[in-house]
Design brief:
This protein has 6 helices and 5 strands, in the order E-H-H-E-H-H-E-H-H-E-E. The chain is of the alpha/beta class and 136 residues long. The two termini are 15 Å apart.
Length: 136
């Protein structure tokens, strides 16, 4: 299964893997599951760190692409087609985070399993979103 990390899962996988669910850890450890990180995650990390909403110990936002590459994970640029079709993703009451919504859209449009603990994203499962979080 192709895994797409959301920003929280990325941070936890790199800095506090014990915060990941057992299912997420198991999926990430499976060498048959390619792992992808969207460039959106780096933008969110940089933005939140600059606003003081994210404290990163022993690193700067600029370090994260290198951390991802060192793990052997693939960095996905934001394609024009995915960005242009973002408006087709139905709105869910109470979920306003544009980063998570774009990651959900990316996962839906490209067939990734989204590694996310965000309960609000579970509402997209009815549209075909596959979430890798709950333990089997």
């Amino acid at each position: 299964m192709k895994l797409l990390l959301d920003t929280c899962s990325l941070l936890w996988a790199l800095q506090a893997p014990e915060k990941l669910s057992k299912a997420a850890r198991k999926a990430l450890q499976n060498i048959n599951n390619p792992v992808y990180v969207s460039a959106l995650c780096f933008w969110e990390i940089s933005l939140k760190a600059s606003l003081g909403k994210l404290a990163i110990e022993s690193a700067s936002p600029e370090d994260f692409p290198g951390f991802v590459q060192a793990e052997g994970w693939e960095i996905l640029p934001l394609s024009a087609d995915v960005a242009a079709s973002y408006g087709n993703l139905p709105r869910i009451d109470g979920h306003k985070d544009p980063f998570d919504r774009m990651l959900a859209h990316l996962a839906l449009s490209q067939g990734y399993h989204l590694v996310s603990s965000d309960k609000l994203l579970e509402k997209y499962v009815a549209l075909g979103l596959k979430i890798c979080w709950k333990s089997a």
